[in-house]
Amino acid sequence: MKQEDTTQRILDKALELFSAQGYDSVSVGEIAKAVGIKAPSLYNHFPSKQAIFDAIVKSTAAQYEADTDKIHIHVQNVQRNIPVFTEITEDALFEKVRQIFEYSLHNDTISRFRRMMTIEQFRSPELAALYSKRYVERILHYHAGIFRALIAAGEIAAEDPDALAMMYVAPVITLIGVCDRQPEREPECLEMLQSHVRLFFRMVHGGGSQRSV
Prior knowledge:
10 helices, mainly alpha, disordered C terminus
């Protein structure tokens, strides 16, 4: 097995274990065993368990950005997405939200990382801050930027963009959490997601159903 393949397997298996048991409950020996190597060999790739965790955080962020770029969602660069949301239809908006919702639930790496951070946010203030930044603040900031630009262009109602972002994002995060805990409720949650997106769309357009958002 090539060294780079072994390195990736260490990250994959460590994330799988961390997401199921929590960081503190998993030893380097357990990670090595899951990969199929001896613990001393693992140290040829990473100097510590913390280094493995840090590499997971970095690689998962890179994967998320690369994957969402394919559906024209650039959380790190709101300016790239303003043209995408200008004059978008209600149906097209829901389709985009559905894609990111299902990706978040069914991509193994992204789903396991979110589960891991849900556990680890209670382990330390640093990880709690990382969880808030990645799953709340960054998403709210992105959507507020979209709404701010669309308000300036006269596309949607002139309301507080930060409040609009909270109203738009919070139900989506809630529904993802429901599906994480109760996967069998995904069809129900998708229906609620569709209702939320359509209601929000019409609200910001003063009741219209086929304008832009």
